[in-house]
Every structure is written in structure tokens, then in C-alpha cells.
Amino acid sequence: MPTVPPNISTLSTPAIQVSSVSGVSYYQIQQSIGTFVYLINNIYMYSSNINQLLQPIGLKKYNKFGDKHIRVLQPMVDPYQSSSALNQTMLGLDYMFDSNNGFYPTISANTSVNFQFSTTEISHQDYLSGKTNFQDIEFLQGYINDF
Amino acid sequence: MISKMKSGDIILNVKNNFNFDATISLFGSTSDPQAGSLNAVQQYWWDITYPFLNVANVAQMYIEVKPVGAPTFNQVYFPTNNNYNGLIQGLNSIGLGTFWYQYPTFIPAIGYQIYTTNDNLVFGNIGW
């Protein structure tokens, strides 16, 4: 069977480099997704390449029935404004980083872009009531049935 | 009861050092198969011009892959839909990272080239 061999090289810097600007690394953020869910309220994008701001962003999400929805955000900037930053509101899209959803930006060649996501963070334990199961057991153990 | 919601910012810098546009997958958790191509320095590329220009029907191809340190390659088959875009979509659907093309259309001086980066997997031949 015919085959095509790979050309393999070790790069000095990663071809696609993702780093966190805050003190928390991207890997740590990635690990926390699932335990924590981040509702995205707003995306602020900055790039010295104006064409980067026009690149589409794919948003994949699943609704509660498990149906997949893909929405493509097509940011627009005024070409005469020479703007290097763009504010994209996410209100109404009900989009969150929850480990199932996907965020697919297209990055222009040899270009760097900063994404600032304004988020609301929530974890599953936030849904628990005030009392834990252990507290309920302790209460019932001390309960005197006096009738 | 939701009483502990916190607000904050996540700030990322993303840099594409390829000389072509690249769509990537972010925030897919550590189990996201496409996340393996981010921040990786081991680059693989294949020139698949020949099968697409000289073989009449390549509806399915395979790629050899193994985890780093594993002794033998496995062949993972993927659909191509008999076109270049279909081949990229097929490769990106098998959960082995993200694959990119340099140009979506055929350019004689370059041909059809496929790129990926991965530090967790080792890739071998693409066959059909």
C-alpha cells in the first residue's frame, strides 16, 4: 500500500503558543474546567494585526438535550478606525466553558492575539444546600422520638 | 442555592508561529483530544499531493500513530470524502490533535501539505 512519510522537526518555540497573562497558567485553567464552569459575559480581543480581529470564532455548545449547536461569531471593526482592539459581548448567547463546549478561534499567520474573557465562575458544590448529609445524620441521631 | 458565584477575568495570549492561518481549540479541558497540539514543539508535516492528484479515488486513508515511548504504530483510518478539505475534517475527527493545511486550495509550487504538532503522540506514515 502506498504511503507518505512524515517530515519531523523539533521547533525552538511551539507553533501554537497559548499562555496565560495572569498568574494562573493555561494548563491550570484547563484543569479547573469541569470542576468549575465559566460563563462568558464578554470577550475583549487585542492584536496589532487588524485582520486578526476580523477572524471568525467558532462556538460549539450542547444544550440540555445533548444537541450540538455551532455558532460562528464574525467580529466586525471599522476599517477606517485603525482599531487594534475589539469588544465582543456574549450576553444572550448563554455560552460557557464547561469542558463539553468548544471555543475555536482562527489565528492569522505569524500573529499574536490577547483574549480577555470576563467570566462568572461557578462550581457544582455551589448548588449544595447549607446542610451536608453528615449534618443531617447527626441531627437525626440525636432526635428523640417522644410520642 | 447559589451563593458563591465569583466574577473574574481569564486573560490569554495566543500566538500562531505558522506562516498560515490556524484554527485552534481552546478551553476544551485536559481531555480535549485537540488540546494536544497546543504548546507542542514536535512538528509533523506530510506532502499528500501525489495521492490527490494521481489516485482516482481515495475515500479513506489512514495515519500511523503511537504514544511517545510505545514500540509500534497503530493505523487509524479516517474518511476523506475524496477532497482535501474532507481529509482535514476527517483527520480532525479522530481525536489525535489538530491538523491544519497550509492553503485550502491547490497551489502547484506547494501542493497539498498537512501540518500538526504534538508532544504526546508520535505520527508515522499516511497511507491509503
**How many β-strand runs of chain B?**
8
Rg of chain A: 23 Å
Unreliable residue runs of chain B: none
Task: Give the helix/strand class of chain B.
Answer: mainly beta
**End-to-end CA span of chain A:** 85 Å
**Largest sheet, spatial ordering of strands of chain B:** 3-7-6
Largest sheet descriptor of chain B: 3 strands, antiparallel
Name the chain pair with the biggest interface and residue counts per chain. A-B, 62 and 56 residues
Tell me about this structure.
The complex is a heterodimer of chains A (147) and B (128). Chain A has 147 residues and is mainly beta. Chain A contains three helices and ten strands; from the N terminus they run E-E-E-H-E-H-E-E-E-E-E-E-H. Chain A has one domain. In chain A, strand 5 and strand 6 (68-73) form a beta hairpin. The mean pLDDT of chain A is 85. Chain B is mainly β and 128 residues long. Chain B has helices spanning 49-54, 84-92; strands at residues 6-16, 22-23, 42-47, 60-67, 74-79, 99-101, 113-117, 121-127. In chain B, 30% of the residues are buried. The mean pLDDT of chain B is 87.
List keywords for this structure.
heterodimer; A: 147 residues; mainly beta; 4-stranded antiparallel β-sheet; 3-stranded antiparallel β-sheet; B: 128 residues; 8 strands; globular
Task: Break the fold down into its secondary structure elements and pairings.
The complex is a heterodimer of chains A (147) and B (128).
Chain A: E1 3-4, E2 7-10, E3 16-20, H1 26-32, E4 36-46, H2 50-53, E5 57-62, E6 68-73, E7 85-89, E8 96-97, E9 102-107, E10 111-123, H3 133-141
Antiparallel strand pairs in A: 4-7, 4-8, 4-10, 5-6, 5-9
Chain B: E1 6-16, E2 22-23, E3 42-47, H1 49-54, E4 60-67, E5 74-79, H2 84-92, E6 99-101, E7 113-117, E8 121-127
Antiparallel strand pairs in B: 3-7, 4-5, 4-8, 6-7
